[in-house]
Design brief:
The chain has about 260 residues and is mainly β. The protein has four helices and 15 strands. The protein has one domain. It comes from Thermosporothrix sp. COM3. It is found in: Cell membrane; Cytoplasm.
Length: about 260
Amino acid sequence: MFKRRGSLINYLQPYGYCGIYVPRLELQPLAVLARQEDGSLFGNIGLLTSIVGSGTPIPFTIQAGEPFVPLSGSISFSLGAAIGMDFLGNMLTVIQGADVKLELQVKKGSSLHFSFEEVLQDRVELLQIENYLKRVPVRLMQVGFARDLQRGKLYIVTSTLRSAKFSVTFEKARAIGLELGAKTPWNVGEGTLTLSELANTSTARMTYNGPRPLVFGFQAVQAVYSSSSYNSLKLLKSEAMRGTSASGYRMLNVEQACVLE
């Protein structure tokens, strides 16, 4: 959809994080993602302790709710033709009870400004994960998972960024297909969505504010195995990740190679 340079979902690269096109509630450290041949990462496989283990619990220390720097920036699009994009509308569908359908027609030369406030970081130390994988055997839950494990397609989330208040401003953008009602703000799940369009301009601004932070960025490592024996960890590049399913819950796509050598 986007050219690689300046892509919306690359906005966290300078911070060393992978950006998520559709922020979600449930992604957390120790979540396991499995990569397929087409570069997809499927979430909700389970936590590391439920997939790799001997049945004896080994506690992890997760540093939760650490303050992170506020994130903001601008992205310019260079598109050969107009495209339809439903950035904030789709991201809010992950909230229970949300019924949002919002599409923006982004034209050539458009720019996007984003801002995440009161950002929190949840993380687990890599050394804890490595020590765990060295100590416990693999519990092969199914043949397909075993094959993915042998091919080095198992990824473990080590850190996430979340925020309950963020905004997106589109320059030279026109809101179309708006189905949120006749007034603003709207109640969306547990939070509120505000849409404003400046008079006599082509600028649209969308703001979300809710009590539960949504995860919009993460870091992950690849677990490398050989014959069911753990070998090492490799870091994911901070490349673009984007939700591709209708709900945004299950699938993330990687646009470039995601393993740091």
